[in-house]
């Protein structure tokens, strides 16, 4: 029982206490007074308690200062991490937008290259048909001698003119697509 008595003293040590007899009959009875207990030296317990408290208080103050410093550092690190996360998010958005722009440009470029290839093919077809027409016109001049040959040549010319007309329409469509895609 003597060993546990110092806990009681710690709890109420802020009050000025003097050992007294416990008188529960008194009207002015308060719990702030320590009763005299046989075999218990309250002065020794007070000295031990204050000595222990004096040893513990600097450690507690040091601990509280360390904990406060750690909390400040932790808050600074959290703020820096939050700022870095915001920056990372912004950079991610910029990267994604750049990727979208690149893919859009790449798609447009491929479309323009395809249209250019189609236009080149049609131009080559025009050149081929033009050469054939020139050769046929030359044959027409010489065909006065052979009527049947002339009729066959005229049919070929008519068919080639249809092909030219079809190719011209196709080329116009390609040009429209080029303008629409701003190539």
Key attributes of the depicted protein:
single chain; about 180 residues; mainly alpha; 2 domains; rod-shaped; disordered N terminus
Explain this structure.
The protein has 183 residues and is an all-alpha fold. The chain has two domains: 1-40, no CATH class; 41-181. Helices cover 78% and strands 0% of the residues. It contains three helices and no strands. It has helices at 5-11, 42-142, 147-181.
Which regions contain 5 or more consecutive residues with pLDDT less than 50? Answer: 1-23
Tell me the span between the first and last alpha carbons. 99 Å
How does the overall form come out from the CA principal axes? rod-shaped
| Tally of individual domains | 2
Classify the helix fraction into a percent range. Answer: over 70%
Blueprint of the fold:
Elements: H1 5-11, H2 42-142, H3 147-181
What's this model, at a glance?
This protein has 183 residues and is an all-alpha fold.
